[in-house]
Structure formats: structure tokens, C-alpha cells
């Protein structure tokens, strides 16, 4: 899988953060990660807190290995 883009957007409909499974309302700024895996595009959303955690633990390469909410296991 390849990560195509990673950018901060204001969501236009409610989204769940993949890392913590928290729900965020319209207008929240979340990081959207777009990946392509075997020709299939998918995008995940990450809240600031989870993104910071991914960055600090350098976990981005494991992104597709996470189940939703599983990042909570990595929080202190
Ligand atoms: Zn989160």
C-alpha cells in the first residue's frame, strides 16, 4: 500500500477518527490520509491527538494494520 496524501481538512460530514474511534462533528479539522492498496483507494481520518501519537511513535507505516480505535492501546 502507498500513502498518497496526508493533509488537514475541515470535515464536511461527521467522521470517526480511525485511531481513537472518536466521533467528530462537521467543521472539525482532521488529518485525512489517502492510501491506495491494490488499486483500491481508501481514506482514513485522524484527530490531532492521534496524529501526534502516530508521529511521535513513527507508526504511520503500520496504518493499515490498525483496527479502528486500536491506537488507544499505544496511549500512555
Ligand atoms: Zn483520534
Describe the secondary structure blueprint for this structure.
Blueprint: E1 2-10, E2 15-16, E3 23-24, E4 29-37, E5 40-46, H1 48-57
Antiparallel strand pairs: 1-4, 2-3, 4-5
Zinc ion (ZN) binds next to helix 1.
Structure overview:
- The chain contains 1 helix and 5 strands, in the order βββββα.
- By secondary structure, the protein is mainly beta.
- It has one domain.
- The protein has a 3-stranded antiparallel sheet with strand order 1-4-5. A two-stranded antiparallel ribbon has the order 2-3.
- The mean pLDDT is 89.
- The structure holds zinc ion (ZN).
- Zinc ion binds next to helix 1.
The largest sheet, given as strand count, sense and whether it forms a barrel, is:
3 strands, antiparallel
Q: Which ions, cofactors or small ligands are bound in this entry?
A: zinc ion
Low-confidence stretches: none
Q: What's the overall average pLDDT, rounded?
A: 89
List keywords for this structure.
single chain; 76 residues; mainly beta; three-stranded antiparallel sheet; 1 helix; 5 strands; 38% strand; globular; binds zinc ion
